[in-house]
Every structure is written in C-alpha cells, then in structure tokens.
Amino acid sequence: MAGIGRLARYGLTQPCPQDLPLWDLASQRPLDEEAALILEQIGRAADPDLALRQLHRLYERDPSVLAEIGGKEDLRIRLLTVLGASSALGDQLAAVAKGWQALTHTIPPRYEVHSGLTDVAALRAGYQRGLLRIAAWDLADDADIEAVMTEITALADATLRAAYRLALTRVPSAPRLAVIAMGKCGGAELNYVSDVDVIFVAAEDEDLSTGTGVAAALMEICGQVAWPVDAALRPEGGRGPLVRTLTSHRVYYQRWARTWEFQALLKARPVAGDAGLGKAWLAGLQPLIWRAAERPEAVEDVRSMRRKIVDQIPPNEVDREIKRGPGGLRDIEFAVQLLQLVHGRADDNLRSGNTLTALRELVAGGYVGRQDGKALEEAYRFLRRVEHALQLQRLLRTHTVPVAPAAVRWLARALGLNETSFRSVWVAHAAEVRRLHAKLLYRPLLAAVAKVPADGLSLRPDAAQRRLELLGFADPRGALRHIEALTAGVSRTAAIQRTLLPVLLAEFADSPDPDAALLAYRQVSEALGTTPWYLRLLRDEGPVALRLAQVLDSGRYLTDLLTRDPEALRLLADDAELRPRTAQSLVDGMTAAAARQTDPAAAVAAIRALRRRELFRIGSADVLGLLDVSTDPLFPAQQGSAAVPPKGGTAKAAAPARAAGQSAAVPPSEGGKAAVGQALSDLTDATLAAALTVARAAVQAPEDMRFAIIGMGRLGGAEMSYPSDADVLFVFDGGTDAAALAVAEQLRTLLAAPAPDPPLGVDADLRPEGRQGPLVRSIAAFQRYYARWSQVWEAQALLRARPVAGSESLGAEFVKLADSVRYPPEGLKREQITEIRRIKARVENERLPRGADPLTHVKLGRGGLADVEWTVQLWQLRHGHAHPDLRQTRTLFVLRAALRAGLVEEADARMLSEAWVLCSKVRNALTLIRGRASDQLPRHGRELAGVARLIAPGVEPGEFLDDYLKVTRRARGAVERYFLS
C-alpha cells in the first residue's frame, strides 16, 4: 500500500493499493498523465475512497480497465462517478466480467431490449445493465431529473412486458389480461428503487383463472429480476381478488370506492398485456374519476389522508423524511392531485398522471400561480434528486436523509453540493413546500369549486345560460354578457376568471339580487383588471374570493366603497386586517396622512380616503360576522340561545332556540352591532380630530385658543350607524368668536367637499337655540345659556354629550357643565315629564315620513329606536341624580343600569334591548343593501330578503318580518308601561 501523502489533494483518506498502478510512492505523484486524470476524476466522486476501492476491484478482475478509462474521457467520468456514488452498482460491476463496458454508450436507449429474452436470469442481467447506464447518464452527464424518471419508467415498462411474456409460458392458454401501471410507474416518474404498483384486469369470467396464474407468475418474475410488484391498490386492497373482470371493476368503483382510490386512479396507465382491454378499462372509469371530487367528503378525505400519512412516520424520522414528511414529495403530490380532481372535471388538460406535467398544466390554466408553480417544481426536482442519490448508494428503498456526517457528506457531494449548502437548500425547499401545500390543499376556494357540479363548471354560452337560469338570475342573457366580458380570450386573466366564476355564480345565487352581485363583480374586476395581484389574491389567499362574493351580495354600500377604492380588497385576506382599528391608531394614521399634504383640501381628502377604507373594513367585518360579540350576563336568553345563528350559519342551527320560544329575528346579542356602532363612532371621532387640526392650521387659529368638539346623538352615544351624521356642538375658550367660527366653518366646508366617498355630515342643530343660535359658543356662553334659558329637551339632548375631538381639558369642563343640566338634582317636575311625552308624540306625528308604515319604521315606528331611547332617557332625567350608574351615554348600558336600579322588570328590559338591537341591525342592513340611508323595513321583495339574509341567515323573509313585528310589538308594550304612564 502506498502512503497517503499528496493523495489527500484528491479527497482520499486511504492509501492507494500498491498493485493499482496509479501512484508513484517514491515521487509522491501519479505514475503518468492518464493516472493523474483518473485520480482527479476520483477526487470529484461523491466518495473518493469508495471510488478508489471499487476501481481496484475492477482492476483485479480486468486490468484493461485502467487503460480504457485513462484514454476515454466519457467512460472515465461515467465509471468513476458511478463507483463513488453507489456501492451497490460497484458490486454489480465487479461481479460481471467486462460489465463496465456498458458505460461506453452515451445516451440510454429506450428499453425494448427484452423482447427476445426467454429466462429470468437474462432478464435480470438486462435490467441491471439498463439501470447502470441510466445511473451513469444521470450522475455523470447531469441528466435532467424528469428525463431520468422517464427512462427508469421505460425500463420498468419493458421489464413488465418481458415478464408478462415469460409468465404466459407458465399457463396452458393465454387469457385476455391487462396490466395497469399505477403510482409512480403509472405517472412515468419511477425512482431507482421502488415497488411497481399495478392492477390486473381480466376481460371475462373465463379469463380469471389463467389470468390469476399469469398475474402471480409476473409478480414472481419481477421480484426475482428487479423489484416487488405491488397490487395493493386494487379494489379491496390485499383482501380483494388479485384479478377482477372489467365489469367487476366498474361495479366496485361505482358503488364502494373511496376517495383515495380515485386519487390513485389519476396515475393509472395500461402497460402490458391486452392493450385494448387496458384502454377500455381506463375509459370506462374516467367519468367516475372526474366526478369523485363532487362527493361531499371528497376534499376533506384527501386532506385527512395526507395527515394520516404524516402521523405514521416514526417521530425520530419525521424531519428527515423527504417523501412522506412535512415539506416532502407527498405534500406536492397531494396538492397537485387534489387540484386535478377538483378542476380536472372541466379541464381535460389537467388529467396527466405525471406530477410535473400536471403541475405545469395547472399553472398554464391559471389554477396555480406562476411563482408558486415554479417553487413547487424546483422543490420537486430537488427532492427527487435527493431521493435518487440516497437510493443509489446501496440500491435500497429509502427516503430518509441520514444523520451520520460521513453519510450526509456522501449524499451532498453526489448532488454537487457540500454539507452546509445541501442542508440550506433542503430546508428552504421544505419550508416553501409546507407553505404552498397548506395554501393549495386548504384553500376554501377549492372546497367551494368541488361543490359545483361538473356541468356547472363549463362557461360555454349554451351551458352557462342554462346554469344561470337554474341559479335564479333574472336576466341570464345579461349575466352571460358579463361572464363573456370577463372570460373572453386566452389570457391568463381570462383563465383564472374561468376558474373563479363558477364558484362565485353559485355564491351570488344565494343573494337577493344575483344579477346586481355579478355586475358588481364585473365592475370590481374591470377596475382592478390590470393589477397583477388582484386575481392571484382571489385564487390563492384563503377565503378572499368567497368573502368578496358575500360582500358584493350585501348590496350597494360596500360595493360602491370597493369600486372607489379597489385596493381595499386586500383586507379580505386576513381576519386580523378586518378587525376595526383602535381610536388612537385611526387618529395617528389620519393626522400623519394629512401632514403629508400642503393644501388643506388635499389634507382632508387624504383623511376622507382613509375613512373610506375604514368604512369598508368595518362593513366587511360586519357582513362576514367577524366582529367580536360581547357577552351580557343580564340577558342570558338573548345571548346564549338565539335562534339566529351567526352570519354564515344555517337554519338548522337556529332550531333549538326557536323551540325555546325566542324570535328568529332577534340577534344573538347587541355586541355584534354595538361593536359596529363603536367602530363607526371611533372612526368619526378620528375624522373630526384630524380635520380639526387641518382646519385650525388653515385659518391660523390662535395657539392659545382651546377648541373642542362635543359629540351628541348617536355619535355621543358611540352608537353610530352607517348613514349617521355627526351630531356635534362646537365649544371654545380663549381667542375671539370670529376665530372660533372660522375654525368650525372651515371644518364643515372641508368635510363637505365633493369626494368619492360617503359624506360625513356635521350637524350642529342640537346647539342652544338650534339653527337660530350661533354655530360656536364659548364655554362661558354655554354656562350662561344653560343656567338661564335651557329647556327640558336640551337637557335630554345633553344625555349623550361626550367630548370627541380637540382640547381634552375643555371637553372635561363641558362634561361637568352638562352633568349639572342633564342630571337635575331633584329630578324632573311633573310638567317637565308631561312636556317630554308631548314632544315625543309630536315627533311621532310630524316626523314620520308621509306614507311610512309605523309598524316597520325602525327609527320612529312603534317599538323602534326612538321608543326605546326616549324611555331610557326619561329614566336618566328622572333618576340620574340618585343613581350614578345611569349617567352613561350608551342606550343599552343605561338600560342595564336601570334594571340593576329596579326601575324596570327584567322581562321588559329584555324586550326593550331586543328591539333596540334588532332595529339597529335592520337600519344598518338597509343602508348596506340600498347604499343610502333608510329607516323603512319593506314588507316584501328583494330588500326584505336581503335584510333577512344579513341578519338571520337561513330564516325565510316572511318569517323574519313576523318576528320583527313581534319583537317591536312587545317593546311598544313596555314603552307604554314605562314612558307613557
């Protein structure tokens, strides 16, 4: 043995055998130029020491090998690369005289070489020779992994056909039998070491006996030649007969097959035996395969199967399993196959059994994003290269990355990497696969598409119009024109729209006005048509598409907001983004946006743009049922057993509470809408605060002038609805009346300027003397007025007064002044109570719009908002001096305080609360539907259906109206007991 010496430069850690003429021990250098070339190539091998040992074995058997590889570069590279990468292939070469000469060929031929073979030994030798040449081509010539898988599969196909011919010699007569390749063999993506999955199909009953003999013989021969043949994917698995007839297969798949079995059939391919029979078998099953995804449980079955596979991995291997583990090959395959099952029903291009081919078609068809598809393909190719390198080492079936450093180094070098870069690339690919697997396999849109019947996925004019008619579109031809406009052409945009629209149409069909929802979707799509992220967001990002459908279904209000600000669509991707922002964050954001502008009008336009975005955020969260619901222990029946499920619920879920006697129209709590009212009030507070800063700067108000805005009415009570104006009082201290008036006028002018957003009316009519009084008063003037001239209605108006913007200290002073007026020390006198009742009667008679239905007017009608609020406010005026808990600005909070103070019976408090909550919800729903303020609940038609759908999903419109009338009638009875008597 020659010492190591300078051999280390070739990556060798062991000495060169003395009888292998490569190294001169005396000079410590290669014997000649050819020896140097051989040693340099050995140094490039995955395991140089192994390559040297294996070469020595070949040399001992055939010394001519050194001369051959020394003078032939291609042969030298192939042979030494194989010897350093695979001890098993080295063993095969050492066992066969001149076996290495098979590597002189440069390109693996297609493997029909077995056609003349008549015995198993010859077939085995031919298979091993073919596999050796593929491995050399793969490792040394840097062959494309997809081409390598194709060649391995071609070799397996040829081996199966040759084994079939040999098996026929073992039976008395040839049956009509087809061999169907499944799994990786069926998909033309075999590994070096894999079981070959097959299904055997006989033509008729008379072919079963001999067919079973041929099948058993084929399995035996292949096991002796190359690999086990696994028929476990057949009907009933290992418990079922090895061979079934064509008819038996069809019956089984029609009646008993589970989802995973159809998933497996995606890769089915006739490979040997009777080709016509194999094609007939596959053709007969195609309709069943492409209907499997329509089973209610299909999508979840595939997801569940993937989870079970992961659970079966030993815990100490789960992070090293490149096939079954998270981020492994199975994640990619399951995502691709589920997408195929769902979308392949209407798109024949997706029906390939090959993973990479199917993935590319999914990308081309717009079902998977380009970047996502590229990432998955790169990861798949890398993981398959790792799998091949692992298996080639010892020709063992393995998918687990080793732990030992030497083994990892061998693997990394076989891939052309070092240990560090291998781990880095592997971890990066696995993380991306995990992310994309979750994104694709669990996207809500996928389950929604699966629910659409296969014939409903077609958007051809004839099929689409019939579908639209069945879905209830009032103008199918008009709807079809919208569809054609969205899907025309061969662009990727049109392709993605063809994927989305069948699902969206089904969603729109549940709305009161499907035609309007589709039109709105077209308008949004055209507004965002050139934006690259728009359709990707709908297709890829969680529930965005389905949420958009719900938002568009809700009516004009949110649709108009979205068409004016299409970028707001991004908010639908994440629950956290739909959570209303805090009051302080709103003020900070609006103030910062205004500060970036130099012109006051532009500054307030920026504030209003942010307000528009926030209105869409709040409205969408409202429609989607994502706002937090507060609990109220004082009204457990209202909170805990509501007949109406949360938004997105079902009529079935409503049944238990109805049995308990509660109205279906009654929402589960005031919390959902109270949250809306609070969010809208916070938004108005912030808008006023930011606009006030701009207005003060615009008129150059004195710095020492304190100026405050006092919220009144619904703003003061933090109970605003979508159409509410901002009822305010303007108060100042320091400076002049003219300067303060300039600030207020500038504020109102800037906020009233025409702009593409819902207006925010600033209404100061509740100020002293009403419209005849000055717009702005000093705190001293307010004090004088309330001390000398205040009337009882003004004390009532002050019950909701709270500072919303401007000077905090001045706001606190005003609250102290308001308390002395709204909570009179001795309560109300009899004549004052009479006056309040008289004013209430006058409001009912004079302010109810002409022709309005008093039974269904949510604000001024019987049992409506005004009834409840005036009753609660009378308690505050009469008893606020004695019960501090009544000194609050929010209606329901005061109602609870009144219950605790013994001013109202619990049953009556519940009736009043239910009516106030329901009327608030109806008022908001009417605005969402109509896109404008409305207080009249219709008694029939689409708008009633829309209100019912928004508030009580699953409840029929007529039933909802009956419940509304029942709730408000009971509330009116309570009002008559407490307010009118």
UniProtKB/TrEMBL annotation:
Span of domain Glutamate-ammonia ligase adenylyltransferase repeated: 118-280, 547-630, 675-815
Keywords: ATP-binding, Magnesium, Multifunctional enzyme, Nucleotide-binding, Nucleotidyltransferase, Transferase
Stretches assigned to the PII-uridylyltransferase/Glutamine-synthetase adenylyltransferase domain: 304-441, 842-951
MF terms in GO: [glutamate-ammonia-ligase] adenylyltransferase activity; ATP binding
Recorded superkingdom: Bacteria
SUPFAM superfamilies from the UniProt entry: Nucleotidyltransferase (SSF81301), Nucleotidyltransferase substrate binding subunit/domain (SSF81593)
Residue segments, region Disordered: 638-673
GO cellular component, one term: cytosol
Comp. bias (Low complexity): 642-668
Biological process terms in GO annotation: regulation of glutamine family amino acid metabolic process
Protein name: Glutamate-ammonia-ligase adenylyltransferase
Organism annotation: Rhizocola hellebori
Lineage: Bacteria, Bacillati, Actinomycetota, Actinomycetes, Micromonosporales
Protein encoded by which gene: glnE
